[in-house]
Specification:
The complex is a heterodimer of chains A (about 475) and B (about 300). Helices cover about 45% and strands about 10% of the residues of chain A. Chain A is α/β, with parallel strands linked by helices. In chain A, a hairpin with a 2-residue loop joins strand 4 and strand 5. Classes of the chains: A alpha/beta (about 475), B mainly alpha (about 300). At the A-B interface, helix 1, helix 2, helix 4, helix 5 and helix 20 of A face helix 1, helix 5, helix 10, helix 11 and helix 12 of B.
């Protein structure tokens, strides 16, 4: 969020004389933006990448004496792991060349750097103030990370980095087939419940939607609300709907939605998923008031035992650290299959690698940035990360090296192992932020009964068609 | 003796003028130019595209920007409701606190405890908008404080306020009025204290009721202050960015019922990386605000009371 804009408004309106105040405040919209623009005259000099010699220890040919700047988003995972990773890079380079800064305001801090042609090497582009990746790619501001994929791993010179990444990781970080962002943290979506509560009541996690409705009925008759979700951030429920539709209809659903196809949303699988969510609302299975709760409020209500099941991502335990009652035993399960004849098996999950790391194309030590990412993917760095954050790095076998994981982390590792190659994720909401707005809006309508499943699919299809026809939006595709 | 005046003026004015030009005028000029470019905000270069951004905005190319125009609609609703409600309530409070108490020894006073109330009503003004946004979000949450009270009073199904398209904008109005009433109450109190007491006492001697003396004496003498208040509040209503961004669902939802133009500008820049297009929206917002402020000034100019 722009502190600049927010702070400017009251100041201008109160302190200026009437007539100029009228003009002045009106200009805030334009003026504040103009103020950001002031640095935009730097030369278009391209980065210098030469220097180091390619050796077994230095496969990318990095100049080890060149400075490296790393910017870490200081959010749910903290920034301690960044300090550790920078230490690993410095040990590799044999000198104090890499430095780390951390912030929660990535875009506010770094937009002027990009506009000035002087971005940092490595950026953890995450959080509410993340930079629009699609725009950065369209303007060729992000380095092509393909050389990293073809480089050997830190731990085994015979294995390429490409081969230790999770299925779909390269694809989901690619724009028009070029790998631009490395998702570092494994995350998955699913339904969460308290293992203890389910054991006490003798409830079984449901594998199909029919079973799920029967379970909800049982939970409701016990006096508990079966389901809760965040009505403020309805992209959570939207993700669940997309997940169930994809399991029902297969990968074509993902491709149809991401490629803005005329039937991306208007198809039987999406309709079936939307109908399932409409049922939750129609049957009164959703806790009253969920429509106005933000994510942490809804998660707190769930931890307090006001509702039995909540859809969320695998960061849930970490996010609620310190608020989880003793013996709660949170566990995640994949979303139920809509029918017994779904295209994908029940263990299929919507997930992959999140927490996007990017390298500035115009940065001075671009290859050093790639090397930093290579080090991050090594076993030393990933186990340090899991130890510090309680989350899995997005590399194969990250779950195998865990010592005494929590029930939540163990269930995530198990679900990821069970899913195997059946891991998928959708890109449209990152590619097209107007569609992200649309999915939040329309899912809020569906989960509060303001629209039906048919209206939901039609509205989303219309929004998708509008983006497809909008000439000012850069389009991406995947296959 | 006049010879020294000009160098003195130049010497004292040059620094503020330079600062003003560099930090106020030049960003505005840049903004008008950037509105004619395709700058994303993340490159060192950009292209001049003429009026293309405005063509997108008005739907000459593609469909009109529904988020921006929904914002304009909501801004206009706020513009009608917020200043009127704020001024009415602030005037009422100011009158009660200054002119509506007992008349002791020929002195017109406010109600008992006026000083306490004055401080109490002013408190919202010293709380930051960010804190207010979070606070009201919690109060208006469907399971929040307000609905808990309503349930105690017997309303089984109270509205879900910010989560319901029918009540969301009204909730924003309530918060904006609450935020502003205290300041304008103090402002009107100050203006009232400059009204000659003899006029009010003369009215009282003529057996004018409280309402009559307010309508015939106080109100006309406050006209200048009211104009200022209308313009300030009008500008606040055309902005409303901070509270909407912090408090509403979406933000701007549900169904774009609470979005405002400034939020559209913000989203286009921050989330969509369309700096040029966002700036074009800023230019439109600027023109609308200037026109409305000029109309307000013109409409109220000739009705000033001579004293």
């Amino acid at each position: 969020m722009s502190e600049r804009v927010r702070n400017l408004l009251p100041g201008v309106t109160r302190r200026t004389v009437i007539k100029s105040a009228a003009a002045g405040a009106a200009l805030v919209g334009t003026g504040a933006l103009g103020a950001c623009a002031a640095g935009g005259t730097a030369s278009g000099e391209s980065s210098s990448n030469g220097g180091g010699e390619k050796t077994a220890d230095n496969p990318l040919g990095v100049d080890k004496s060149a400075a490296l700047e790393v910017v870490i988003f200081n959010g749910g995972y903290g920034d301690q792991y960044g300090t550790e990773h920078v230490g690993l890079y410095n040990a590799w380079a044999g000198g104090q060349v890499a430095t780390m800064t951390s912030t929660v305001k990535i875009a506010s801090t770094l937009q002027p750097r990009f506009a000035g042609g002087n971005p940092p090497e490595v950026i953890d582009n995450s959080g509410a103030d993340a930079m629009p990746t699609a725009t950065l790619v369209a303007q060729n501001q992000l380095a092509d990370l393909t050389p990293l994929l073809d480089a050997p791993t830190i731990d085994d010179a015979n294995v390429k980095v490409r081969d230790i990444l999770l299925p779909g990781a390269v694809e989901s970080g690619s724009y028009d087939g070029v790998f631009r962002q490395l998702g570092y943290v494994f995350s998955m979506w699913g339904f969460w419940y308290s293992g203890t509560l389910f054991k006490d009541k003798g409830w079984q996690p449901a594998k199909t939607w029919d079973e799920f409705l029967a379970l909800c009925d049982k939970i409701k008759s016990s006096g508990l609300a079966p389901f809760i979700h965040t009505g403020v951030h309805t992209q959570y429920m939207s993700t669940i709907a997309e997940t169930m539709a994809t399991k029902h209809g297969g990968r074509d659903i993902v491709l149809g939605i991401d490629n803005l196809k005329p039937d991306g949303w208007a198809n039987d699988s999406m309709l079936a998923a939307a109908k399932a969510i409409q049922q939750l609302q129609d049957e009164g299975y959703i806790l009253d008031g969920a429509e106005g709760m933000d994510h942490t409020t809804s998660q707190t209500q769930w931890l307090l035992g006001k509702a039995a099941i909540i859809p969320c991502g695998s960061w849930l335990e970490n996010e609620m650290k310190g608020k989880v009652p003793d013996g709660f035993d949170m566990v995640v399960q994949p979303t139920p299959s809509l029918t017994t004849g779904d295209a994908m098996p029940y263990p299929a999950i919507n997930g992959g690698s999140g927490e996007p790391f990017i390298v500035g194309e115009q940065s001075k030590n671009k290859l050093g940035g790639l090397e930093y990412l290579r080090i991050m993917l090594g076993k030393d760095a990933t186990s340090k990360f899991a130890e510090l954050t309680g989350s899995l790095a997005a590399v194969k076998d990250a779950g195998k090296t865990l010592s005494s994981p929590s029930t939540a982390l163990k269930s995530v590792a198990d679900a990821s192992a069970a899913a195997g190659e059946n891991i998928f994720s959708l890109n449209y909401a990152t590619w097209y932020s107007t569609l992200n707005d649309a999915r939040k809006r329309e899912m809020a309508n569906l989960t509060t009964g303001r629209s039906t499943a048919e209206e939901y699919c039609a509205a989303m299809q219309k929004a998708s068609d509008e983006v497809a026809a909008d000439p000012k939006i850069k389009k991406y595709s995947r296959s | 003796m006049n010879r020294g005046k000009y160098p003195f003026l130049v010497a004292t004015m040059i620094v503020p003028m330079v600062i003003f030009v560099v930090f106020v005028i030049s960003p505005y000029i840049q903004a008008f130019y950037l509105a004619l470019t395709d700058w994303t905000g993340y490159t060192t270069t950009y292209n001049f595209v003429g009026l293309q951004n405005f063509e997108y905005l008005f739907g000459i190319i593609g469909s009109p920007d529904r988020f921006f125009w929904a914002g304009l609609r909501n801004n206009l609703i706020l513009l009608v409701v917020v200043p009127a409600a704020t001024i009415a309530i602030a005037l009422f409070f100011a009158t009660m606190l200054n002119l509506s108490g007992s008349t002791k020894g020929g002195q017109i006073r406010g109600v008992p405890g006026a000083t306490f109330y004055r401080i109490l009503f002013f408190v919202p003004q010293v709380i930051s908008v960010a804190a207010l946004g979070i606070m009201f979000q919690q109060i208006f949450q469907p399971q929040g404080l307000l609905n808990a009270l309503l349930r105690l009073l017997g309303y089984e199904r109270p509205p879900s306020w910010l989560a319901d398209p029918n009540t969301a904008l009204a909730t924003v109005v309530v918060v904006m009025v609450w935020m502003n009433v205290g300041f304008y109450m103090v402002y009107f109190s100050a203006a009232m204290s400059s009204i000659p007491r003899e006029l009010l006492e003369a009215a009282a001697i003529d057996k004018a009721s409280r309402w009559q003396s307010f309508r015939m004496v106080t109100f006309p003498l406050l006209r200048n202050s009211l104009t200022v208040a209308f313009i300030y509040l009008g500008i606040a209503a055309l902005d409303a960015f901070a509270i909407v961004q912090l408090m509403t669902i979406g933000p701007g939802g549900p169904n774009e019922t609470t979005t405002v133009m400034a939020l559209s500008i913000y989203k286009n820049f921050k989330e969509q990386g369309q700096f040029g297009y966002a700036t074009a929206q800023g230019v439109v917002l600027f023109l609308i605000t200037v026109v409305l402020a000029a109309l307000t000034l013109r409409a109220t100019r000739r009705e000033q009371v001579e004293m």
